[in-house]
Write the structure tokens for this entry.
Amino acid sequence: MKRLLLGAALAVGTLLSASASFATELTFWTWRQEDKAEYEKLFAAFTKANPDITIKFEAFEATSYNTVLSTALAGGKGPDLMMTRTYGGIESLAGAGYLMALDETKIPALKGFSQAALASETMRSNKTLYAVPAASQTMLVVYNKDIFDKNGISEPKSWDEFIAACKTLKAAGIMPFANGTATAWQNETIVSALTSSIMGKGFYADLMAGKTDFNDPRFVEAMTKLKEISAYFPDGFVGLDYASAQQLFTSGMAAMFAGGSFELANFAKQNPALKLGIFAAPGLKADDDKLVGLFYDSGFAANAKAKDPAAALKFLHYAASKDFAQPFANNLNNVSAVPGVTFESPLLAKVAELNKNSIAYMTLVHFRYGEPTGSNLIQAGVSKMLNGQMTPQEIGKSMTDGLATWYAPFKK
Amino acid sequence: MLSSKLTGRRLWIAALVVPPLAFMCLFLVYPILSAFAYAFYEWRGLVRGDFVWFANFHRVLFEYPFSERTLNAFTHNIVVFFALMILQNGVGFLLAYCLWRELWGARFHRIAVFLPVVLSTVIVGLLWKLFLHPLFGAVNVSLRAVGLGTLAQPWLGQDSTALMAIIVANAWHMVGFPTLVFLAGMQRIPSEILDAARMETESEWVKMTKIVWPLVAPSATVVFTLLFVGAFNWFEMPFVMGGIDGSPHGATDVLGLYFYRTAFGSMSASAENFGPGSALAVLIFLFIAVVSSVITLKLRKREIQL
């Protein structure tokens, strides 16, 4: 009898240990609950190629995601794999030592990624990459094709054409822009969406090289032009919040919306009949570069204490490959950061095309690492300018002086 | 025999008192004390660093940009307190007086005045945001309809009107509460006192200021203290109507929003600064605790026992 029991126990034991080594279950956290079905398909495809690894999808509310994630990681209860934010958002996790450091020897596919993409998931202090960049967003002008056609307007090539188009629309009784600035961050998005071409690649390069600051005439000119074109925003737009502005556009009352590529999916969902077009706001002259503002908004990272680091790394290999990125782009409407991905959706293909000629959405990408952030300063500055309480020069000065408290190149 | 009865009674009392006390300690006292402790550490994200004494307090009180924001938010809280004292408690007292004197339609108005209090702040905030919509809002549309189109404003978009607009919305929402408390106070005034007063004077004003007002002092203590605490903890209404950043450009920023944004970060502008955030929480708590105790003690003194 004893022997029998012992034998049974042994058999169960071997079975258990065999099954344990057979399948590793990794947990994956994200803030994109709405993408669950598609992720599960992607994970199933991964498990097919790696039969010993399964991945479990868990989603958390978007605005508190970073707080939830860092609390869990601090308590040792974090996921094996996770979607991360970028820039300052990755630094707070990586700086605490929660994330697995990555490089090209671990994931060779990273070689093909753009510098801007890799920089979004790199910690500045040790120049180490902590996540595979997932997707970018683009600041541009979205327009209603039917309204443009009906009024004989085409995508403007110079600033004068841009203003002329606005005049034509206004005369026809249509709001040229739907934008409102009562929601603070909308004061920042319109800067990148409407004036990237006016600031220009030269200004961006000089700013990054520490050769100039926001007192630069090219930046001041951009603010001046923003003020000029705000005359074609809705009446009382300073009191118009983000949601109302989106509704003005989706209801077809306004012809254009200056914002991010992240609006496109939502606009199409709100009003499937809308024919959407996009363009980069022009510079002053027709032969100036037409630039969009670019930033990366997410990546895939592994826990530094993942229970099976090799398995976690396998997933990151997959996340950096076209096998993952192609459906990630086509089925979830992401402008994937993986090189060589093609886009089924003509709008996303156009976004990817526009991205070839871009500068960074600079207040978000470079100036959110200290207090006051560049975003704090530009949001307040533009809001005051649009309310007639600040001049373009004063915005430049307040940004330069404010950032000088922590941004070394501006310190005198 | 007697002593054992007492012990039984004591046990019974202890059994009733201990669970809520434990609950309070676990969910109120402990978090407050730990928040106190957090304020003295340096934080990287949510990871605790070194003990830094009063560095976080120094940052929020004396160092740019925090000092500027602290002062800005604190000033707004003071404005909110005084404005609501008039619009909410003052109007509440007058409404209570009218209801108590049973003016025309008193029964209907007693319900009507209290009804908004029952609604959630989020609903009232969104409702008022729609009223104040610059293009289609009821306020601007009615102004234009009666030919006062020039007075139509983007109410929530300019620093001259935004804070006041939110204060008015809050007063509309909560005015029923002081009304109810004052009304209860007035109904407790013995009729002999009122009859005696009626023999002296016919003036409604004299009766209101010399008889009713002093006699509802206990009600006043309650609503004043609660308003003080409410005004300095103000969060929901400005959050719904002005957003976490106190739009436009900080014109509706108050300590509650500012604390939340500093401690946990604002998705669209900045990362979390947990140390300064905790320091702010401690300062707000101390300020409210000290001042509301003083207010309560002072106001208690002027109460008259009936």
